Fold:
Amino acid sequence: MEESNPKTYEECYLIIDKVVNKFHRKWRLKAINWFDFEDVAQVVKLHIFNKWHLWDQTQPLEPWVAQVSSNQIKNIIRNNYTNYVKPCMSCEFNMGEDQCSFTRSGTQNTTCDLYAKWAKQKRAGYGIKLPLSIENHTQEVDHHQEHTIDYEGATNKLNKLLKLNLSDIHYKVYIMLFFDDKSEEEVAKLMGYKTTEKNRKAGYKQIKNLKKMLKQKAIQLMQEHDIVL
Structure:
């Protein structure tokens, strides 16, 4: 039986925001560089708003929001990354890694028409999946053996460097935001941030600026110490 006074999106916003933000870590692990998670979260929330009428309000809200969020994030990754993957991935001549049984050289290159079309139209988009800009490093990236990257070791190295280069409180915020999946409200409370603006989360501007600073510092250290994630 339908509720006589159904809940609105606005009434449930805090719950929605908390559930969506739980996907932060998953996005960080599968990140597309030109999409910040804050932008992704806004896209997901807008989709939830547009599909609000589909939520059966006799059922818990959190699982429904989690399912919608997961599907939307998968769609974003698919539409903005997998469309750029080399055609070699599904080609019958693919011999593994960069090897090809079709070309004279035995490697995947522009003597293949499909590869040449991909290189001209989509190579740049494919490269952007890396967390650092490759504008001036196309040659290095194209020949980088991605499967040899020690992600856990690189993350630990970056974390140690950040601990040395950040204040204790900022490092704690970094861990909370990017590893402990803490909400922005929890971090704002730790930092003592407040707001007087109606319908705004406490410290939303400060948290946004703080996250920007942390990302800039991480990128700087990754570049200085040749860390690849």
